[in-house]
Amino acid sequence: MQMVNFDFKNEIIKEDFSLNYCYQCGTCSSICPVAFASEGEYNPRKIIEESLMGLKSLLIKEQKPNIWLCSTCQMCVEECPQEVFLTGIFESLKNKIVQTGEKYPEAFKVQAKAIIDNGVAISLSPPIIRRRKELKLPNVESADRIELKNLLKATNFEKKININGDR
Ligand code: SF4
Ligand code: SF4
Predict the structure, then answer these.
(1) Residue 166 within a domain
(2) Which residue minimizes the CA distance to atom 4 of ligand 2?
(3) Per-residue pLDDT reduced to its tens digit, 17-69
(4) 48 CB near ligand 1 (under 6 Å)
């Protein structure tokens, strides 16, 4: 049986106190489309349980369950009877993974680079622009690239996410 790591649990709670309210009912996992598609291999309730126990190695190093599979659809947040902010907790865990230099999916690096280069995470391709027009959706404004570059440089963003590294 794994021992509770109170220090790491408290680190997570400091970033989102709602973790404390989880009573492990499993509603999040029963409603999660990724849990359904992966036949339970991805399991948000389990990530929350590991967070409550402060199981740092499983969460940060081994990444079991794989937290990066969450699509941030927010269905679990909407349905949680205890109003646990799961996606906020997952976000802070992902930040910890990156900050500690552990592996994370290449796709996130590509998106980060797109933000640096174009001011948006997903560039608008001609088919997307055409479809948006058909649906009468408003134009998508991108951030001021120069200002964004300066901000990201000032915060040492590229180095922090190891954008040119090979981890
Ligand atoms: S639905 Fe909420 S209370 Fe229930 S297990 Fe998930 S996070 Fe915990
Ligand atoms: S936000 Fe993530 S964990 Fe929650 S239901 Fe959607 S995919 Fe599942």
Answers:
(1) no
(2) 76
(3) 999 999 999 999 999 999 999 999 999 999 999 999 999 999 999 999 999 99
(4) yes
